[in-house]
UniProtKB/TrEMBL annotation:
This is PABS domain-containing protein. One of its GO terms (biological process) is spermidine biosynthetic process. It comes from Salix udensis. Belongs to the spermidine/spermine synthase family. Residues 81-326 form the PABS domain. The active site is at D234. Keywords: Polyamine biosynthesis, Transferase. GO terms for cellular component: cytosol. Residues 1-22 are annotated as: Disordered. It comes from the Eukaryota.
Amino acid sequence: MEGSAGRDLECQKTMDGKENNGNVSEKAIPSCCLKARASAPELDAKCHSTVVSGWFSEFSFFVLAKLAKRFTSTTPCGPGLVFLGIHLQEKHISLEVKEILYKGKSEYQEVLVFESTSYGKVLVLDGIVQLTEKDELAYQEMITHLPLCSIPSPKTVLVVGGGDGGVLREISRHSSVEHIDICEIDQMVIDVSKKFFPELAVGFEDPRVRLHVGDAVDFLRSTPEGKYDAIIVDSSDPVGPAQELVEKPFFETIARALRPGGVLCNMAESMWLHTHLIEDMISICRETFKGSVHYAWASVPTYPSGVIGELKYYNSEVHSAAFALPTFLKREVSLLQDQGR
């Protein structure tokens, strides 16, 4: 891999190239792909601004601004999977691309679906991996069953985001649930998921589900007080429009929509990369909610850094273990708890 890493880096440097017709593309395609396309048009199936020499590489928004910096290491981690060590000492995944299945741009974001060699189909939003067929179950099960198994017999549930349908699929396993609202801002994500990820989007077929396409903040503002037993926020990374989903006004709106004794489960990023964000969220939630606030984690290889017997990842032991934190994070959380007393 080391030999190819340098060539891929050169491709990254040419990402400001032009299309063959002389017009600058909206998301410029690397020159290596342009050359391949010219000599073999059928290779267009592997061309995209994030796909270089047949590999998709995810870079966070603050790394994209520093692409000119060189990689410090390239580590093969199995067939079709590589982790890149960036000079910022962060991990960003690369997946080998067999074929690009869909690429489009909605009002809110760029949507990409491709078939990888080892992780099945992959959903990417604005260059960030949202899920892969191989490991989506870990995320979907944990973000759903941790909260729903933490309270007795939840009946009303709200999902914020989650347009792929995976969280809905897992909620449907809970027979006590009578009503499920989902508020997803981007119709394209829903449509693409139904077409390319039917095993996740099956969640939309549950008759208890009511879909609301629009802004979650507006939706929650019009929600009756104390309506939900559980709210699950399955949002994208907290940048751009999603930034407000990790800020205090949003949590205050959620607290109003939850019944006394209800539970919120919120996507909270990686303890390896975003400790500062986790600390901020815990502090805000301790100020906002009456009750306990905890950080839990799960292993999802392609992310940076209920009848339980039917599940593939979640079980009662995993539930308990998810709250066992490494010493460095446990220390930070303990400090926050001490400050709150």
